[in-house]
Amino acid sequence: MSLTIATELAARFRQCFGKEPRLFRAPGRVNLIGEHTDYNDGFVLPAALDLAVFVAIAPRADRRLRLRSLVMDETAEFDLDDSAPLPRGDWSDYAHGVAVVLARAGHRLSGADLLIDADLPLGAGLSASAAFEVAVGYALLAVSGASVDKVELAKICQRAENEFVGMRCGIMDQYISCCAVAGSALLLDCRSLEAKPVAIDPSARLVVCDTMIRHRLVADEYNERRDECERAVALLSSGIDGVSALRDVSIEALMRHAEDLPEVIFRRARHVVSENARTLRAAAALESGDLATCGRMMDLSHASLRDDYEVSCPELDLLVDIAQGLPGVYGARMMGGGFGGSTINLVDADHAAAFAGSVQERYRQAKGVTPPVFDCAPGPGAGPVGA
Ligand code: ADP
Ligand code: MG
User: Fold this and answer.
1) What is the value of pTM for the model shown?
2) How much is the ipTM here?
3) Which member of 2, 64, 135, 351 lies 3.0 to 4.6 Å from 26 by CB, making a disulfide possible if both were Cys?
4) Which residues does the UniProt record annotate as the domain Galactokinase N-terminal (predicted)?
5) Coil, helix or strand at residue 116
6) What confidence tier does 266 reach under pLDDT thresholds 50, 70, 90?
């Protein structure tokens, strides 16, 4: 964990605001497998990163929130007593939304000055948005003398992104940023919100490769996939008993009712239903040290996201193709919403350094740019810095 960034942030805060801040951090995440399953009440297998969003905060005597993001090099200001708060359509909505939802949930927040920095890349599919929300939520509650259950904070941050930012994300990103366990992934049941830590064998590394492609229409495409899943549920629930989400559909039942669905909707459903099964299988394999099976599930996940869910892009496919052909690689797949962002690779620790070099070289030969590669250690969830 980067303590330097926190120390520097505290010094900048004293300079800017002339008072002593408290410091909080919330991590970004990888997801080994379980993509586009969280909003279908399904299973995911994320782990928090040692890369995070950092917030320095001190209370104000008035009812204003003043935020300065060093990453965006911008400042935004809001009044906590504004009776009709509106999104502006920029980065500040994530933080403002958290304050608004916390207030609606009955928390009396104190005005505050916040200085924000991050060593987590934004828009890379590592969920900087959730890390930002959770860090701000944690900090606002702490200076207001309130506390909240971590799962509750995750739900509040998800609501902020759903209702204030307009991104209908599931619970995974906020949940893992709040509740992660160092050294482990969490097998999270997105319906019950029960999570089971699954230790990641230290002989394997989680390596992230960033395409550097940032698709502007991710939110539109993402929300469209959600609509398609809801359509599948509406159509399937008339033929199969007890279906309130795609989580409730087995692959056998889906195949029996294939004719009831338009072809595209069938393929969307097939991705989600098969991905849930792959995620459970991958978690069991990881737990028993069977990295080869875990990796094979990741490879299959990528093919399903590319062909059935159609959320990949040529750059992601290329990074995955390169990775799958390299020595010491158990599995590789696109990660996150899709249409750009990053891939996640499960790589033998002894091969990780050579893997990074080979991926960068081959991708550069094909595309003319060198993709950033992050060799990640599974870290703890959000909290005060230094705790
Ligand atoms: P991802 O979550 O994959 O990183 P998103 O597009 O969902 O991608 O979230 C990135 C957005 O979150 C940024 O464009 C910005 O609006 C906001 N954000 C995240 N971290 C910060 C930060 N440190 N300062 C300001 N805004 C941030
Ligand atoms: Mg995001």
Assistant:
1) 0.95
2) 0.99
3) 135
4) 12-59
5) strand
6) very high
Helix (H, G, I), strand (E, B) or coil at 310: coil
Domain 204-376 indexed as CATH 3.30.70.890: yes
CB 274 within 8 A of CB 36: no
The pLDDT mean for the chain works out to 96
Nearest to 308 by CA among 248, 239, 213, 232: 232
Q: Is 201 helix (H, G, I), strand (E, B) or coil?
A: coil
Which helix or strand (DSSP H or E) is residue 315 part of? helix 314-324
What residue segments make up the domains of the chain, in order of their start?
A: 2-200, 204-376
Ligand 1 atom nearest to 117, measured from its CA: 23
Residue positions counted in the chain: 387
Q: Which amino acid is at 17?
A: F
Using DSSP bridges, classify how beta strands 22-31 and 46-59 pair: parallel, antiparallel or unpaired. Answer: antiparallel
Positions marked catalytic: 173
Return d(Cα 40, Cα 236) in angstroms, integer: 14
CA nearest ligand 1 atom 16, residue: 91
Question: Residue 216 has what DSSP assignment?
Answer: T
CA torsion angle 71 344 184 194 (round to 10)? 90
Over residues 273-286, the pLDDT tens digits come to 999 999 999 999 99
* Nearest residue by C-alpha to atom 8 in ligand 1: 123
Which among 68, 91, 311, 342 is the best mutation to test ligand 1's pocket, defined by most ligand atoms within 8 Å of the CB?
Answer: 91
pLDDT digit string (tens) for 190-233?
Answer: 999 999 999 999 999 999 999 999 876 677 888 999 999 999 99
With a 6 Å cutoff on the Cβ, whether 219 touches ligand 1 is no
